[in-house]
Structure formats: C-alpha cells, structure tokens
Amino acid sequence: MHPANWARFGLLAALWGCSFAFIKVSLHAFAPLQLAFGRLLVGALVVSAILAVTKGSFPGRKVWGHIVVASVFGNVVPFTLFAVGEQHTTASVAGVIQGATPLVTLGLAAVAIRTEKPTARKVAGLVIGFAGLIVVVGPWHTHGFGSVGGQLACVGAAVSYAISFVYVRRFIAPHKFPALAVTAGQLTSAMVITGLITVFTVGWDLPGDLTAGPLLSLLVLGGASTGIAFALMNRLIADAGPTTASGVNYLVPVFSVIVGAVALGESVTWNVPVGGAVVIAALALAEGRLPLPSRRAAAAPVARTAPSTSDRSPAPAAREAC
C-alpha cells in the first residue's frame, strides 16, 4: 500500500478510536439524541461540502428509500445507542465493543447474501470473537465499567452497524453510485430523522452546561470522526480496495482504550485489552488475515521422511513374487 494510504489508514483509525472520548465529553452538555443530531448535522455539512468541491451529486431517486433504511441502522440507531451506552459505561469498553462489528457483519452477510458462504474459518472467528466480547464486557465486574445495560447498548449499536453494512451491500452497492454521494445522502437522511425524533421526544433543552469542552468535542466528533472519516474511508476503498480498508477496524479498539485511559483517566483492567485482542484476532482469522496451519505443510514433513531407498528396495521383489 502507498505511504499516503498508510497515513490515511492510521488517521482514520485514530479518528474513529477517539470518537468515543469525544462522545463521553459531549454528554456533559447534550442528551444522547441531541448529540446524535449535532454529530450528524456537522458531518452532513462536511461531506456535502466535499461533494460540492469535487462536483459530485446526490444519488438518484431510485435508491433513496434504501438510503433512508441504511441511515437508520447505520447512523440514527448506533449514534444514539453509543451515546446512551457511554452514559453508563466507559469510552474504552464502547470502542472495543465496536471492534466486534465486522464479526457480526460476517454472520449477517452469511445469512442475507448468497455469495457470502459461511466457512469453517468464519464460523471459528465468530465463536472466538463472541468469547472475546464476553471477556471485554466482564460480567463478573460489579463496578468500574458501568452497568451491563450500558454495555448492551453499545453491543446493540455494533449490531445496528452490521445490519447497515449488509443492507448497503445488498441493496445500494449494486447501483454503482459513488460512495461519497451515498455517504452524503445517508448522513443527510439520518440528520433529518434524528432531528424529528429529538423534537418530539427530548426537545432542545440541554441537560448540562454548554461549555467549551462539550461544544468542541461535538464539532470535532461531527466534522472529523464522522465527516472526514467517511471521506478517508471512501478514498482508502478506492485506492487500496475494501478488504485492505476494512482492516482499520483492528486499530479502532486500540485507540479507544489508549485515549480513554490517557485523556479521561478511565481504569483499564486485564479483561479489556485481553478481550479486545481476542476480538481482533478472531476478526483476522475470520477474514483470512491470520494464517492457519496448512494441511499440505503439515503433511510435507511426512513425505520428506518417507522410507529411504533401502526401505523401498524390497518392493520390486515383492511385485515380482506376485
């Protein structure tokens, strides 16, 4: 991969990994739905601006129904659930749980997409990844990582992301619209939906004080971790391919744990990095990035240690006797 793409790869992982800390700080002033709306508003403006500069356009009418569905599962639900979850758990745990999203995607794709056949490798990765997720959540803990309900909200967000990925691949990708155009449409749709839900539920009265910290966190979360991050992912997919670009999910939990510990002072016990490592390894196994012992390689030593010439010499006599 070109050095410039490696730089994009690392920046994207950092932006997504830091997003959980930005969510945590933004919640000091905003309710979860208000935070989701603000994030989507800023992100939609950034992506739409990039689309305008590149002289692109929004997708055609025939896919807008699918884009609305994708925006619900890919933005409205997960953005809200992660915000709700982080009211009751740490940014580190939320980030590691998102690292399991590709594993859930593999399972859903195997069911919903005919070309995604379940293999022994993928099944093994899903099982091991689920075990790692349990280790991350640490149901034996009674304090320090918040409530199980908060962690389950983050799990629900990860599942919602997975549903959206499979939905986009099945119903939107075949139309071959530019990824940036689909992203702009999706963020705009999600912004409108979240805004309407907010108006008729929590309203716009902020539950906390709107100080510089929460406001700046919201702006960075929307502009960088949502808008610019989507643009980086689209460029990576175009330059390096979707398989290579998807590897960014391996680094997101690493950044989330580091930033949560350093910037927010969150406690990190053995189960978070260990469980996160298990999830990452399981994802690598399921996607074929982690090599398995080859049967041929295992059989090769046997072939090389086959009987010597002296051991095989009686064979002709035996055949002659027959």
Global shape: globular
Tell me the helix content. Answer: over 70%
Runs with pLDDT <50, length 5+? Answer: 302-322
Number of distinct beta strands: 0
How many H/I helices? 15
Order of helices and strands: HHHHHHHHHHHHHHH
Distance between the termini: 62 Å
Structural class: mainly alpha
SS strand fraction: under 5%
Q: How is the biggest beta sheet arranged? A: none
Q: What is Rg?
A: 24 Å
Arithmetic mean of pLDDT: 80
Secondary structure: elements and pairs:
Elements lengths: L2 H24 L5 H22 L10 H22 L5 H8 L2 H12 L7 H18 L10 H25 L6 H22 L11 H29 L1 H5 L5 H12 L7 H16 L8 H10 L4 H4 L1 H8 L1
Helix pairs in contact: 1-4, 1-9, 1-11, 2-3, 2-8, 2-9, 3-7, 3-8, 4-7, 4-11, 4-12, 5-6, 5-7, 6-12
Question: Can I get a quick summary?
Answer:
With 322 residues, the protein is mainly alpha-helical.
Descriptive tags:
single chain, 322 residues, disordered C terminus
Outline the structure in words.
The protein is mostly helical. It has helices at residues 3-26, 32-53, 64-85, 91-98, 101-112, 120-137, 148-172, 179-200, 212-240, 242-246, 252-263, 271-286, 295-304, 309-312, 314-321. It is globular. It is 74% helix and 0% strand.
